[in-house]
Specification:
By secondary structure, this protein is an alpha/beta fold. 47% of the residues are buried. The mean pLDDT is 97. The chain has one domain: TIM Barrel (Alpha-Beta Barrel), CATH 3.20.20. Strands 1, 2, 3, 4, 5, 6, 7, 8, 9 and 10 form a ten-stranded mixed beta sheet that branches. It is globular, with a radius of gyration of 20 Å. It has twelve helices and ten strands. The structure holds ligand PBG and zinc ion. Ligand PBG is lined by residues 117, 119, 121, 129, 168-169, 204, 207-208, 213, 220, 276-277. Zinc ion (ZN) is lined by residues 119, 121, 129, 168-169.
Amino acid sequence: MFPIHRPRRLRTSSQLRRMVRETVLTTNDLIYPLFAVPGQAIAKEVKSMPGVYQLSVDKIVEEAKEVYDLGIPGIILFGIPEDKDADATGAWHDCGIVQKAATAVKEAVPDLVVIADTCLCEYTSHGHCGYLQVGDLSGRVLNDPTLELLKKTAVSQAKAGADIIAPSGMMDGFVQAIRVALDEAGYLDTPILSYAAKYASAYYGPFRDAAESTPQFGDRRTYQMDPGNAREALKEIALDIAEGADMLMVKPALAYMDVIWRVKEASNLPVAAYNVSGEYSMVKAAALNGWIDEERVVMETLTSFKRAGSDLILTYHAKDAARWLND
Ligand code: PBG
Ligand code: ZN
């Protein structure tokens, strides 16, 4: 008899397919990014990211309620400050925009997990992720002096109510520096979600419109990772684990599925994947042109991140995905 094995037997009905499905996406897996701006009643759509808005704190609170009601467990906050300067004051000031947003959200929706992205690029006048040597036009951020600002930033975010601190600047020693600073300030139980393997990627383009954080000169290649490297991701991960990271992130996601897989195999920590702005914008553009079925493409992609090993997915599709999952 030919053939004995007919794998199609298990695909004959949707009930059977459900029974043997290995990976199932749930709303628990999703984290929704939000961009906070100063002002009142502001909701300004980001040109390159249809459906994504810069929101004033009052609107962030409304959005947080909606996210919570959809069953999404957490948000990650980014901020666009009133003023930018060489010391990234807006990042670490107790009245900074992310601090205000975090406090307001925790007050209105206490059970929603608030993650604070900890970096300086939205707050520096030149758009780099830390201090530069005077006259440097290449963007070689000074590592150790920058850590001092990042420590202050992390502590003030925790003080404002952030439940999780997410260091994203790719500075050496970042995790250990903020772990010690958080502990000394009494935030022993505030976990660190480290952007451990973050690549220098063209996929961040639309985010930089949203966060107004495009470097004025140079690029981020002296601190973010080279796209050709996967073993180096394992080195970054090992260092962050040793420094006290509680969760690890790979970013971007789509072009780095192999890295997600390797990180999952190499550690026993929860792994997050950041489905970044450029990945979102490409799907939205194709969907708006009627070239792809948005729901099916999004659900397939998010499920695949999970299949590749991510426990959590940071995605601008989170609200849509939650609605589709809840339907
Ligand atoms: C800040 C930061 C960036 C993103 C998250 N945190 C951008 C960058 O490194 O320029 C990108 C997110 C996205 O593209 O959706 N360091
Ligand atoms: Zn940055």
